[in-house]
Structures are given as structure tokens and as C-alpha cells.
Design brief:
- The protein is α/β, with parallel strands linked by helices.
- It is built from eleven helices and 15 strands.
- The chain folds into two domains: 178 residues, NAD(P)-binding Rossmann-like Domain (Rossmann fold, 3-Layer(aba) Sandwich); 177 residues, Dihydrodipicolinate Reductase, domain 2 (2-Layer Sandwich), CATH 3.30.360.
- The chain has an eight-stranded mixed sheet, covered by helices on one side. Strands 3-2-1-4-5-6-15 form a seven-stranded parallel sheet, with helices on both faces.
- The longest helix has 18 residues.
- The chain is globular and about 65 Å long.
- The chain starts with 5 loop residues before the first strand and ends with a helix.
Length: 374
């Protein structure tokens, strides 16, 4: 067996999503590359970092360099890719610094607070000759790739899309100091969850042929009985020539917010999270839309009907190995090691960020101007 090439990672912060991504990534036999964590930056003590390594079963913790300054890690560290997973209002400053240090970057979604910030990052990444990628991991899962490569070209013209990512985060037990209720930390269902729901709309509307898609409606209700006007129930309507997408979010409905997040993400929901309706067939994607393993297809074009004229139904199963966040790591590693400097998914990320910008404007969802500056 041919020995795998090793991709060395640095983690900028030990965030909640990092506690899922890094254990999912390291030591994965089914990955194309051998992914290895070699450096982290944390505002905590070295002792706390070692406890974190042990708690999350990080391989070879004694060899990981711990920095107490993320700037110093970017300037001095020896690694192939830096993974940025701080709250999204911090991303822009951190990306710019990493790019100035000529670092390859995987940054959590949304990559920046707005499209203008990310456009600036894309410019600088191209100038510096490095690889930049937004960590929209759902795009790289087996079921998503199958949808885009195999199903979308066959189901005819997409006419209507329903895309929802509602996930109970805010409940009675959540403290007011939580990051999910702090607008200074970018709190809000549109940025936190809408980025996924809008990504599915983008996959459906632009998966075969890219056309001009505009936000024609956006409305929002804030989290009830909490201060700060943090957006919760959002409805965004997109339209292009001949197709409409209705995108919804909530971080209070439906379901219980009490179990751990991985239990909540495994909950059975009454309706699919995503439904793509085209001229020949419809595709339904069960909850959770961030990690789909099945595509439910109903064929109703005349060429596909049963003998009695009824629709044909099939379920296409595409299992995910582990959490599945690691698939994107192979994608960016391939670009780095094949010496293909680029911004992976730049057009897609900019489209979704632009839709969120317009949806926020129409629904009057506002953040401090300092978070939006270029």
C-alpha cells in the first residue's frame, strides 16, 4: 500500500466546532491524506490545552506546539493549513493576517460577516498564491456530491425549492451570556444556520447551470423573551428565471433544546429539511440537512412513471464516515499538495454571503458597524 502524504494542521482556537472537526479528521484511515495536528493557539494555559488533547483523544499530544498568541502561530508555526474556527466576526482579521503570512486557510462558515469582506480575502489569497476555502463541509459529503453530479442533471429544470435548517439551540436553560445570544459574537439564526439552508438553495438553483438569483423577500422574528434582538425565525425567498426557493431558519423551533447537540441532530423530524422540485422528479433530504445520508427521490416525469401511471419512489443511501467534516480536509489538502493555489468554492461562498447581506438588509437585522468594516 502506498504511504499517504501527511498534511499538517494548525488550529486557531479550540472552539466547539473544533472539538468535532479535529477528532473527526485525525487518524482517519479512509482519508486520502494522513492529517496531523501539529500546532494550536489558545488563550488558555498549556495545562488546559493538554487536558483538551486528552479529553478529545488527539494523537501524539506531546508533539503539538501550543501558542498563546494566534498571531505568533501564524508568523512562526510549521504547518500546511490553518483551521480558523473562532466566532465569525473575528474571521476577517484572522484571515487577513494568515494571508499576509502566506498561509493556506480553512475557515469556518460563514467565512466573514459579509460578502465585501470575503471578496477582499479572495483578492489577497490570489495575490499571495495560497489556498483559501470556506468550511462548508456539507458540500463535500457523498450524498451532496451525488446530488450535484448524478441527480440534478437528470431531474429536469428545478422549479421550486424548500430549504430549512431549524435546530433548537435557545431554550430556557441557555444563559443570556451564551455566544448564541451575543450579537457582538455574530449571534443570529441567519448567519449561524441560514448559511446552510441557503447553501442547499444554491446547490438546487445553480447546481447545473448558474443564473442570476435574487432575494425578493426577507422577514425575521427575534428570539422571544430575550434581549438583544437576536434573529430567530427567518424567511428568505429567492427567485431566478423560472424558479423560486423558500429558505427558513429557527434556533428555538422545533424540538427540545435540552439534549446534547449530537442527540438533537439525530432527532426524527416530521418533514424533510430540503425539497427540490423539478420537472422530472423531486428530491427530499431528511433532517439534519448539514449531514445528509439519504436522498428520497420521487420520479413523476412521463418517461419515469410506473405502468399504472403512478410515481416511482426510491431512496438513495450515501453513508457518511464519522461526522463527515473531514471530507473537506482532503479537498483543500489536494489543492495544497498539488500546488494549485486557488480559492475553493469562491463563487458559491460569495453568492450565499451576498444573499445573507440582502436578507439582513430587507429584514432589518443589524450588527455593530465595526463588525462589518473592510
Amino acid at each position: 500500500m502506498e504511504e499517504k502524504q501527511t498534511c499538517c494542521w494548525a488550529a486557531l482556537s479550540l472552539s466547539n466546532i473544533a472539538t468535532v472537526f479535529l477528532p473527526d479528521l485525525l487518524g482517519r484511515e479512509d482519508a486520502q491524506y494522513e492529517h496531523k495536528l501539529v500546532a494550536i493557539s489558545t488563550t488558555g494555559s498549556n495545562e488546559r490545552a493538554q487536558k483538551w488533547f486528552k479529553a478529545h483523544k488527539i494523537p501524539n499530544p506531546e508533539s503539538i506546539v501550543v501558542y498563546n498568541s494566534w498571531q505568533t502561530m501564524l508568523e512562526q508555526g510549521d504547518f500546511d493549513i490553518v483551521y480558523i474556527s473562532t466566532p465569525h466576526p473575528l474571521h476577517y482579521e484572522e484571515i487577513l493576517k494568515a494571508l499576509k503570512c502566506k498561509r493556506n486557510i480553512l475557515v469556518e462558515k460563514p467565512a466573514t460577516m459579509n460578502a465585501a469582506q470575503y471578496r477582499k480575502c479572495i483578492e489577497l489569497a490570489n495575490q499571495q498564491g495560497v489556498v483559501l476555502m470556506e468550511a462548508m463541509w456539507t458540500r463535500y459529503l457523498p450524498s451532496t456530491r451525488y446530488l450535484k453530479e448524478e441527480l440534478l442533471p437528470k431531474i429536469g429544470k428545478v422549479r421550486r425549492v424548500y430549504s430549512d435548517f431549524s435546530f433548537p439551540i435557545v431554550g430556557p436553560d441557555l444563559q443570556d451570556t451564551s455566544r448564541f445570544l451575543d450579537k457582538a459574537a455574530g449571534a443570529g439564526a441567519l448567519l449561524d444556520q441560514g448559511v446552510y439552508a441557503l447553501t442547499w438553495a444554491d446547490l438546487a438553483l445553480n447546481g447545473v447551470e448558474v443564473g442570476e438569483t435574487n432575494v425578493v423577500h426577507s422577514s425575521s422574528w427575534s428570539v422571544p423573551e430575550r434581549s438583544g434582538e437576536v434573529d430567530d425565525i427567518n424567511t428568505v425567498v429567492l427567485a431566478n428565471k423560472g424558479a423560486t426557493a423558500i429558505v427558513t431558519t429557527s434556533m428555538t423551533l422545533p424540538g427540545s433544546s435540552k439534549p446534547p447537540f449530537y442527540i438533537r441532530l439525530g432527532a426524527q423530524k416530521a418533514a424533510p429539511s430540503v425539497r427540490i422540485e423539478a420537472t422530472e422528479a423531486s428530491v427530499a433530504i431528511p433532517f439534519p440537512p448539514i449531514r445528509p445520508e439519504e436522498l428520497h427521490v420521487q420520479w413523476y416525469g412521463y418517461a419515469h412513471l410506473n405502468e399504472d401511471g403512478t410515481e416511482k419512489n426510491e431512496i438513495i443511501k450515501k453513508p457518511v464516515c464519522g461526522w463527515g467534516i473531514w471530507y473537506q480536509a482532503d479537498v483543500i489538502a489536494a489543492a495544497v499538495f498539488n500546488k494549485q493555489p486557488c480559492v475553493i468554492g469562491a463563487e458559491e461562498s460569495l453568492r450565499v454571503l451576498g444573499w445573507m447581506d440582502e436578507a439582513r438588509r430587507l429584514a432589518d437585522i443589524k450588527y455593530d458597524e465595526k463588525l462589518e468594516q473592510i
